[in-house]
Design goal:
single chain, Rossmann fold, 6-stranded mixed beta sheet, 4-stranded antiparallel beta sheet, 18 helices, binds nicotinamide-adenine-dinucleotide
Length: 466
C-alpha cells in the first residue's frame, strides 16, 4: 500500500469546538482514513470555537476528499477551506529575475543603460568572446523543451511543461549557482526546434535539452552540437547515464565484480537507455544485452531505426534473441529505464549470484524493490522513498557549473565519465549495499562534479591547441 508523501499535501482550515478532546479527535480522524498528519496549527481562538489549520500528506484527490469529509463529519466541526500546498507553491511561478546592479540615480542609469552601455556593445561586436565576460551569457543556460515527453505524463505540450522547467532552473541555481531559464517551444518539428535554438543561442553558455521525446531528441541534440559553439546536453539521456555509471561503479565494488566480467541487461532503449548503453560501452563491460518493448535487440531484428541499429551492432556479443526474462538468466546486472512491473523475484533468482538490480522506471519500477531484494545484493530505484536513489540532480548542476567555468564550447564522453567518477568518489568509505550514491543534498557533490568536468574540459582544450 503506497504511503502519502509531501508531493501531495493539503491544508484544511476548519472550525472546531474548544474542547480538550478536539485536537485528539481531529488528528485521529485524519489517521483513520490514511492521511499522514504533518502540522496542526491553531490560527484563531474564541470562547466558543477554535479555527485550526490541519496539514496532511495524501495520496490523491479522492483521498483528500475522504479526509475532508471525515473531518467535516465530526460533531461541531465545520471545514471552511481546503488548499493544496503544491499548488500554493506554484502560484505566480517559481522563478524571478533580479538585477545585479544598483539603479539609484541618473549616473547609475547612464552606465547600466544608455549611453554607457553602447561602448560595451561595441566591445562585444568587435570581440564576440567578450560576451562571456560582459553579459549574463557567462552563467546562463537555456532549459529547452517542446513538452513532448514530460515526466511520466507524456506529450502535454510546452505550457504544461513549464512548471517542470521552472523546477529544473531552480535546481540549477540551488545546487550550482547556475542561472537557468525555461525555454518552452510551441513546436514539435525537429527542424524548427533546431532553427529556434540556434537563433536564441547567443544569450546562453549552454543548452540543456529536457523532456523531448525519443527518437527526435537524438537528432536534435546531434545537429545542435554540430551547429553551436556552446555545450548541448540532453539531461534525460546523459544526466541519467552519468548517475547510472557512477552508481554501477560503486555497486560492483560492493559485490566485488569487475565490469569486464559482467553481463549487463538494459531494459529500455529510449532516451535514457541509449545514453546509458553508449556510456557503459566506454567502460568495456563483459556484454550488454539491450531489451525494448519488442524484446531483445539483435542485428536480425526488423524495423529498427538508426538508434536501435547502432545498439544492435555494438551490444549482444552472442546475438541472443528472446524476451527480457530470457535475457536476465545469468545476468550480473539489470538496468531498467522502461516500464513498470516487468518481472518478479523469480526472474531475479535466475540472475547470477550477487546480482545488481537498478529498476528506474518512474514512478513505478520494473520490479518492486522489496521483491528484488529477495535475491539481489544491491537494489536501486529512481524513488526517494528507497535507499540508492538514482537522481539526475546528482549530475546536471555540477556538469554545467564545470562547463561554464571552463568556458567550454562542447561536451563529450570524457567529461561525462569524469562527472560519473566524481559522484562515485564522493561516497568514499561510506560505501555499502544501501549507499552506492550520495544523497542529492550532499553539498560535496556539485563542486566535485564541477571540478572534474572543468579539469576534463581544460585537458581537452590543452590537447586541441598543442
Ligand atoms: N533517474 C531516473 O531514475 C530516471 C532517469 C531517466 C528515465 N527514467 C525512467 O525510465 C523510463 C524511460 O525513460 P525514457 O526517457 O528513456 O523513455 P523513452 O520513451 O525514451 O524510452 C522508453 C523505452 O522503454 C521501452 N519499453 C517500453 N515498455 C517496455 C516493456 N514492457 N518492456 C521493455 N521495454 C519497454 C521502449 O521500447 C523504449 O525503448 C521512464 O519511466 C523514466 O521515468 C528514470
Amino acid at each position: 500500500m503506497p504511503v502519502p508523501g509531501p508531493g501531495y499535501s493539503i491544508t484544511v482550515r476548519l472550525e472546531a469546538p474548544p474542547s480538550a478532546s478536539a485536537a485528539g479527535d481531529l488528528t485521529t480522524a485524519v489517521g483513520r482514513v490514511g492521511g499522514v498528519l504533518t502540522a496542526f496549527d491553531v490560527v484563531e481562538s474564541h470562547a466558543d470555537a477554535i479555527v485550526v489549520d490541519i496539514t496532511a500528506n495524501v495520496l490523491s484527490a479522492d483521498h483528500a476528499e475522504d479526509i475532508t469529509s471525515e473531518l467535516d463529519s465530526l460533531p461541531g466541526v465545520h471545514v471552511r477551506k481546503v488548499s493544496d500546498r503544491t499548488f500554493l507553491m506554484h502560484l505566480g511561478g517559481k522563478l524571478e529575475v533580479s538585477p545585479k546592479v544598483n539603479l539609484r540615480n541618473r549616473d547609475d542609469l547612464s552606465r547600466a543603460y544608455t549611453p554607457g552601455v553602447a561602448r560595451v556593445c561595441q566591445a562585444i561586436a568587435a570581440n564576440p568572446e567578450d560576451a562571456r565576460r560582459l553579459t549574463i551569457k557567462r552563467n546562463t543556460v537555456a532549459v529547452v523543451t517542446d513538452g513532448s515527453a514530460v515526466l511520466g505524463l507524456g506529450n502535454i505540450g510546452p505550457a504544461a511543461a513549464l512548471p517542470v522547467m521552472e523546477g529544473k532552473a531552480a535546481l540549477f541555481k540551488k545546487f550550482a549557482g547556475v542561472d537557468a531559464w525555461p525555454v518552452c517551444l510551441d513546436t514539435q518539428d525537429t527542424e524548427e526546434i533546431i532553427r529556434t535554438v540556434r537563433a536564441l543561442a547567443p544569450v546562453y553558455a549552454g543548452i540543456n535539452l529536457e523532456d523531448i521525446a525519443a527518437p527526435r531528441c537524438f537528432e536534435i541534440e546531434a545537429r545542435l552540437r554540430e551547429q553551436l559553439d556552446i555545450p548541448v546536453f540532453h539531461d534525460d539521456q546523459h544526466g541519467t547515464a552519468i548517475v547510472v555509471v557512477a552508481a554501477l561503479r560503486n555497486a560492483l565494488r560492493v559485490v566485488r565484480k569487475p565490469i569486464e566480467n559482467c553481463k549487463i541487461v538494459v531494459s529500455g532503449v529510449g532516451a535514457a537507455g541509449s545514453a546509458i548503453i553508449r556510456l557503459l560501452l566506454r567502460k568495456s563491460p563483459g556484454d550488454i544485452v539491450a531489451v525494448d518493448i519488442d524484446g531483445v535487440v539483435h542485428p536480425g531484428r526488423e524495423d529498427m531505426d538508426d538508434n536501435l541499429r547502432w545498439v544492435a551492432e555494438h551490444t549482444n556479443r552472442d546475438k541472443a534473441t528472446g524476451t527480457l526474462h530470457d535475457a536476465l538468466v545469468g545476468a550480473d546486472v539489470f538496468i531498467g529505464v522502461s516500464a513498470p512491473n516487468l518481472f518478479g523475484a523469480e526472474q531475479v533468482a535466475t540472475m547470477a549470484d550477487d546480482a545488481v538490480v537498478f529498476a528506474l522506471a518512474n514512478p513505478d519500477p520494473e520490479i518492486d524493490p522489496l521483491e528484488a531484494q529477495q535475491h539481489a545484493a544491491v537494489v536501486a530505484t529512481g524513488r526517494s522513498d528507497y535507499p540508492n536513489q538514482i537522481n539526475n540532480v546528482l549530475a546536471f548542476p555540477g556538469v554545467f557549473r564545470g562547463l561554464l567555468d571552463a568556458h567550454a564550447h562542447h561536451i563529450d564522453d570524457e567529461m561525462l565519465l569524469a562527472a560519473a567518477n566524481a559522484i562515485a568518489d564522493v561516497v568514499d568509505d561510506r560505501l555499502n549495499a544501501s549507499f552506492i550514491v550520495p544523497s542529492v543534498f550532499d553539498a560535496a557533490v556539485a563542486p566535485a562534479v564541477a571540478e572534474a568536468v572543468r579539469a576534463a574540459a581544460r585537458r581537452e582544450e590543452v590537447a586541441s591547441t598543442a
